[in-house]
Amino acid sequence: MTDGALNSLFSQHCCICNNLLTNADDFICPHCLACVQTARNGNYVESKVAKLFWGKTQVCRGASMWTYSKGSHSSKILVEMKYGKRIDICRKTGRMFAASLLDKNFFSDIDVIIPIPLAEERKRQRGYNQAEQISLGIHDATGLPVNTHSLVRVVNNPSQTTVAGVSRNDNVKDIFSLSENSCLDNMHILVVDDILTTGATINSAIQEIMKGANNCTFSILTIALSDNS
Ligand SMILES: [Zn+2]
User: Fold this and answer.
1) Model confidence, pTM
2) Which residues surround ligand 1, an ion (CB under 5 A)?
3) Which residues pair with residue 68 across a beta bridge?
4) Dist. CA 167–CA 42, nearest whole Å
5) Which phi and psi angles does 205 have, rounded to 5°?
6) Distance (Å, rounded) from C-alpha 67 to C-alpha 73?
7) How far is the CA of 89 from the centre of ligand 1 (A)?
8) Ligand 1 centre and the CA of 73: distance in Å?
9) What are the structural domains, with CATH classification, of the chain?
10) 35 close to 75: Cβ distance less than 8 angstroms
11) What does the pLDDT look like over 86-129, one tens digit per residue?
12) How far apart are CA 223 and CA 96, in angstroms?
C-alpha cells in the first residue's frame, strides 16, 4: 500500500483512541484533543520556550503547542509524526498551531520559515522530514515561505533523546552548514522543529545561520516542549 493510501486509511480514525472521526480533516477526536492541550497560557507555552535560549541566543518569540512527557497523549502523536509515516499529522498539527497563533500576532514580522533539517541519509530512510512537513502546515495557515535549501545537516548525529545532559551541546556542535548564497540577511526567521528539549539543536542551527547571514532575528516554534527541558 502506498504512503498516501495508508494516510487516508489512518486519517479516518483518531490517532490515539482509534475511534472513527466525524471530520475527515482531523487526525484526533475532540475528547483526545482536550486531553492533550495544556492548560497553561491558553493552549500553548510561550515564556518557557524563550527562557531556554536566555544567555545563548537572542530569541524574539517562541511557542510550543503541547507539553511532552513519556507515555503522554502528546507523545503518542509525536511518535506517529516521527516514525509512523503520518505526514498528514505533521502538516495538520503545524496548520492547527499556526492558526491558533494568528490572532496573537505571532507571525506579524516573520519573513521566512526554516525547518530543522535532517541529514540526507536519515531523511531518505524516513521518507520525509517531520519539521519540514510541520512548516508546510504553518505555510498553509500563514502564507509564509518555507526555506529548505539554505540550512543543511552535514552530520547524522545520534538522537538528542539518547544523549544525556551536558553532552547534548557537543552532540549538536557543527552539525549544520549554511549554503552559499543563502540570502538571509536582515530576515526574521522562524525556526521550526517537532520537539524542544534543551534547545541545543535549535541553538546550533541559529549559530550556523548567524555565521553566514547578517542582522537576522529569530523566533522559534515547536509542536511540543519536553517536560525535561
Ligand atoms: Zn480519540
Assistant:
1) 0.88
2) 14, 16-17, 29, 32
3) 226
4) 34
5) -65, -45
6) 10
7) 14
8) 10
9) 40-226 (3.40.50)
10) no
11) 999 999 999 999 999 998 889 999 999 999 999 999 999 999 99
12) 10
